[in-house]
């Protein structure tokens, strides 16, 4: 919910970067402020630990064909194994309309802050030789980046983050959520780390379960909640008018209330929502990282890295 007091202030057509631009420089500064320790990475291939079956394709080594499984499935399948090599990082950025909000005193819009975090994580992962990909929930002018460890991947991700504009309503159009997460869910292999950046506002009721499902099949998952300080504290005094920024022109949701009167209930509901997300993610082995746009990006990125650094990747055997 964005504040509206007297004058209607529609979201800007272009993303409000504020003090968070230029992204390329900001992301490098954040990444340079981190210590990226080694992690046990996982990819499919010939190795020492069995990791399941997949359909045979021409070129596969015949020695990996599982005859018994092929007879059972009535198609030729090959055995797959884990090996300690690179682990892909999948970044999913919520770019729906509410992410374009920037309150007074904030360094930039929520989407801009999420972009800094995502770009910094991309730089850290690429420095370690891990492929990085970028997917979106909603947004305008957005383009996905397939996972790659090539040298130019960081510049590509930064360019696409810079060109994104907030737009779309995931509650009114549930397919926005499904389209964005579907790519990550289908493409992320076992052991790939998935990080979702979102304000968690105006999402469909089933969003927590849908996003938590990304953490199945041994994929470390972290959801980074990004809020504006005004949303996190409701600091206003006196009568205010609030409008849902993801409501279209013909369906504007607006309420007028007294800030001090509703503040306690608002903050309690905010905390309850966070607890729901935290518990839902935990059931699937995921974690919630909470942040506001005035936080130190280095500290937030460090917390995200801790959230996906599962000790010995113990949860990789999860179904």
Could you explain the architecture of this structure?
- The protein has 9 helices and 12 strands.
- By secondary structure, the chain is α/β, with parallel strands linked by helices.
- It has 2 domains: 272 residues, 3-Layer(aba) Sandwich (Rossmann fold), CATH 3.40.50.410; 40 residues, no CATH class.
- It has a 6-stranded mixed sheet, with helices on both faces.
- A hairpin with a 7-residue loop joins strand 6 and strand 7.
- It is globular, with a radius of gyration of 21 Å.
- The two termini are 37 Å apart.
Salient structural properties:
Rossmann fold, disordered N terminus, six-stranded mixed beta sheet, 34% helix, three-stranded antiparallel beta sheet, 319 residues, disordered C terminus, 9 helices, alpha/beta
Q: What is the CATH homology-level superfamily of the largest domain? A: von Willebrand factor, type A domain
Rg from Cα: 21 Å
- Main sheet specs: 6 strands, mixed
Low-confidence stretches: 2-12, 36-48, 311-319
Strand order of the largest sheet: 7-6-5-8-9-12
Total count of domains: 2
Based on the coordinates given, report the CATH architecture of the largest domain. Answer: 3-Layer(aba) Sandwich
Q: How many beta strands in the DSSP annotation?
A: 12
Q: What fraction strand? A: 15-25%
Q: Gap between N and C termini, in Å?
A: 37 Å
